[in-house]
Amino acid sequence: MSKESRYIALLEKLLTYLKNAKLEYFKASDHAVSADKKRYYNQQALQRNRFFQDVLQELYRFGMTSEDLVINRFNFDQLLIASIDTLKASAIEKCVHADQALLEVYQQLREYQADNLEVEKQCSLVKKAVIQNKEWMASLALKVE
Questions:
Q1: What is the tens place of the pLDDT at every residue in 93-103?
Q2: Which residues contact 59 (CB under 8 A, 6 or more apart)?
Q3: 56: buried, middle or exposed (CB in 10 Å: 19+, 13-18, 0-12)?
Q4: Structural domains of the chain in order of their starting residue, each with its CATH number
């Protein structure tokens, strides 16, 4: 497989992970009690959607069309396998899990010169969200005890 083909495959994988992360953040927003957290989770979902659009534009730059993309073919097996680990997790834990999966893909993407995607900026914003979510998870754990 050529380097360009591997890059395109990685971008398609990133699209799937961004879509999943966006959905997890919207679900977290639905479960949030405070208006501030609802707003935060909605903003994070919209940010993942902007990243998604950036990656989509990069794929279009390589001549891909919407019909060519994996994201247009819903894969129930993939959804089931991806959700098994987080079945009993809280909404915030699912956001952390989705963002950590994103960070792994961004790490793989660093080997390519993806200047159009602002990989470092996107990665930095996702890392900040993971830190924030982990802080909230820790504060929730203290309240339960």
A1: 999 999 999 99
A2: 8, 11, 12, 15, 69
A3: middle
A4: 3-144 (1.20.1260.10)
